[in-house]
Predict the structure.
Amino acid sequence: MAIKRKISAGWSQANSRLSSLPYLSDPVVKTAVAVFVVVCLGFFGFFAYHYVKYERIIDRRMNGPIFSNAAKIFARPKTVRVGDTLSVNEIATELRRAGYTEAGKAGEARLGTYRLQAGGIEIEPGPESYHAQDTTIIQIAGGKVARISAAGDKSDGDSAAYELEPQLVTALFNNELRAKRQVVHFNDIPKVMLDATLAIEDRRFFEHSGVNFLRLAKAAWIDLRSGGRSQGASTITMQMARAFFLTPQKTLKRKVLEMLIAFELEQKFSKQQIFELYANQVDLGQRGSFTIDGFAEGAHAYFNKDLQGLSLPEAALLAGLIQRPSYLSPYRHPDRAAERRNLVLDSMVETGAISRAQAEQAKAAPLNLAPPNVEASDAPYFIDLVKDRLTQQYPEQELNENAYRIYTTLDLDLQRAAAEAVQDGMKLVDAQVQKLRTRREKVGTGKDAHVEVTVRPGPMPQVALVAMDPHTGDILALVGGRNYGFSQLDHAIANRPTGSVFKPFVYATAMAGGLDAAPGTAETPVSAVDDSPSTFSYGDQIYEPRNYKDEYHGQVPLRYALAESLNNATVKLAEQVGYDKVAQLARAAGITSVKATPAMALGAYEAKPIDVAGAYTVFANGGVRVSPLMVQSVRNTQNDVLQDFHSESKPVLDPRVAYVMTSMMEGVINYGTGYEVRRRGFVAPAAGKTGTSHDAWFAGYTTNLLCVVWVGYDDYSDLRLSGSQTAAPIWTEFMKKAVKLPGYREVSEFTPPPGVVDVRIDKNTNRLSTPACPQAVTVAFISGTEPRETCEQQPGDNRNFFQKLLGIGPSAPSLPPPSQPVVVRRPPPGTAPPPNAQAQSSPPPPPQEEKKKKGIFGRIVGIFKGDDNSQSASDPPRR
């Protein structure tokens, strides 16, 4: 009872106090209170529901591999060899780019770790590495790799080379988007990058619990006054919540959810872990078809640097891009990017991260961006081709969901060289095209007369470059066009008329036919073929080929006909050996579209540049064709091999014939239509062939690298420029860059197989050279087919002394000497072009009319004054 009275009294007192507040009895107030209670309950219910919902989502999202939700494409491993010029820091940089971490630093090292030592580096692959988990030590002395050995082994077991972890090219199948990301740990992020990011994005990151309420209120007030939603006020944690779990749409609900998730993230993760996720996730723009995710990839994309190598102005630029990476792109809008960078530097001064003097010095620094060449490291055409071929065997969903690792044949150093060569070479092509389209016309009369210069419109020339290992078939570099953003059409797999790059198959068929020929009847490099205007019939068709500039040379040796790319001589040779035999060889080599017609001999039928590269392995690989290969293996996330891929090999030519053809194509470069290669300074032993139809081609190779370049228009209109003017310069620039790289600098002479002999041949008579005939050149022959007669002998000449002296009586005709300069075959690597290189590059003189015959006296006098009927060597044409 007492308790009851106490309660009653209390209630009475409370009721009395409430009754003293008359406004609470107002219906409006009661309604407002009820609404407030309902809103609070609703907000609490909303908060509780979404808290539980996103707690589960966060746990599910963060417990698995955060950044491994797509198939990944890797380049081939970079090889370190004893004797290479390398530093420890350079090797460490390569390993960090591949995903290794320094031993002893925080974070998992699933791919591997490295440990810096005095004069060396210890590399330990992890459980997810491409390589076996064997620890290796690379020792550096005097700036060169001195020793490669297994850890703990100081006496034996040294290796000549070591493959580093393959570099990531792209995450290929991510909702049709391509993203490049190099995952780093918090301890790998340099202080300057951390300070720059916090200064501009979230100064109180290490102090707040996920939401900066003061900044949020200030932003809301600014938006309220301006009537817009320009102020975000999101902390780094809130940005992470949006990036991982929400859409970028600006709504009140999304902002509330952003705050809620931020609170949860702060409870589940440390500040270091949150910033680490942010540093790997942040969007820093687009390059070609690739998105740039994370600071480490941004450092590589914009500055071609490792993250730890960033300078103050570079770190400030990356931090500034976070706000609006497309709008602030330093490539498209350098002024905006510089202004934003300077704002970051000022913010760093305000936070005390740097001094005012440091900021001013950094503001004065140029942007120093890496060249914006997407092809150099991203290889989008190559990646497209890999995707197309893989999806023929694997469903996209399987590749994506299982995060398969695709290891390719792509060599990033060679890809960079190819992209740069194409970029520079197409500037030369554009200049030549513009010159062809430029017209100067006189307009007006008298004092009003003036010259107007107009440039006719036309299509943009396109390009393709395919580089491969001629012995394994590995595609090492591939450029499918001049600008992937402009056109995604991969010209490396587009069918185009092959032009004169097909001609070596005609000559190879002729040489192969001589293997079983009777003695003295085999076709050899010095066999004669008629290069005269001719009409060829095939069925009811008439074919009348024409030589370049309508120049004809009569009887010429085969090696000269190929070197000068003589059309009529080539068709005549194809007719002699049989069109069907030429077509059969070409199809076996991989050019499958050919038909046995006269036009086939001049490359009238189409082939893809990548197929032409495969076909040329027949010559570069001792007669064995190897099919082009782009993917080496497909593996799971533990790097267990699911499928290995291998190139197909097939003997097509006798090795002796392949070598003879290589020798003849050395002549194309040394003194023929491909002399542009030598003129532009590539001096290593090489063989190749120019091609000109509506398009321009150059196909050539050294002992360890084969490259095919194509230039032309998408609409099949005539380029009106030759292969030596357009494709050969691109090929040359690429090869000059390639031979400077460690894996390709060892270019040697082509080695003849058993059954081939090199013979010194007199250039004027195409017979064996003697001291009496000093103008000689070395020519390769299949043993038993080489000439037997010397340059001093005239076979079948039975005239007596006086008949020979007076030049009367019948004489067996000899093969006219070809017009070509004196050259030294196979210049050794590192030597300069011949002293008369400039003279050799000029075109030959036009054909002269036949001179009036001398009388007997004139012939006698000519013996003492020099025979002006003798033909001297002339310079090679540039085509």
